[in-house]
UniProtKB/TrEMBL annotation:
InterPro entries: MlaB-like_STAS (IPR058548), STAS_dom_sf (IPR036513)
Superkingdom of this protein's organism: Bacteria
Domain MlaB-like STAS: 15-91
Family matches, as SUPFAM superfamilies: SpoIIaa-like
Gene3D superfamilies: STAS domain (3.30.750.24)
Name of the molecule in the record: STAS domain-containing protein
UniProt xrefs under Pfam families: STAS_2
């Protein structure tokens, strides 16, 4: 199961992705994020209620973080995401998203 809720104004949405962030839902995740990108200067992703992720979600994040004109931040990073990225050898992704968490000084 996957769900997406959005709070805040279109120019700075907080996008909450919940449930399974896996290949099964990758088109829907991708579509939800693409729908918000043109209107937003700043995007905050809340992944705290996600249950699992896989390579497809890691790829979506890598692509999203390449958006030079967007400020992307995270409210929380679930252990499964960090474990997946580590198992894929995506150390630079782990560092990048960790630096973009709102609780990171």
């Amino acid at each position: 199961m996957f769900s997406c809720t959005v709070q805040g104004p279109p120019e700075h949405p907080v996008i909450k992705l919940s449930g399974s962030l896996t290949l099964e839902h990758s088109r829907e995740i991708h579509a939800e994020l693409l729908a918000r990108l043109p209107k937003a200067d700043v995007i905050t992703l809340d992944l705290g209620d996600s249950e699992k992720s896989d390579l497809s979600f890691v790829q979506i994040l890598c692509s999203l973080l390449k958006e030079q004109d967007k400020a992307i931040s995270f409210t929380s990073l679930p252990p499964h995401l960090l474990e997946n990225a580590a198992s894929l050898g995506a150390d630079s992704l782990i560092k990048e998203i960790s630096n973009r968490t709102e609780d990171n000084p």
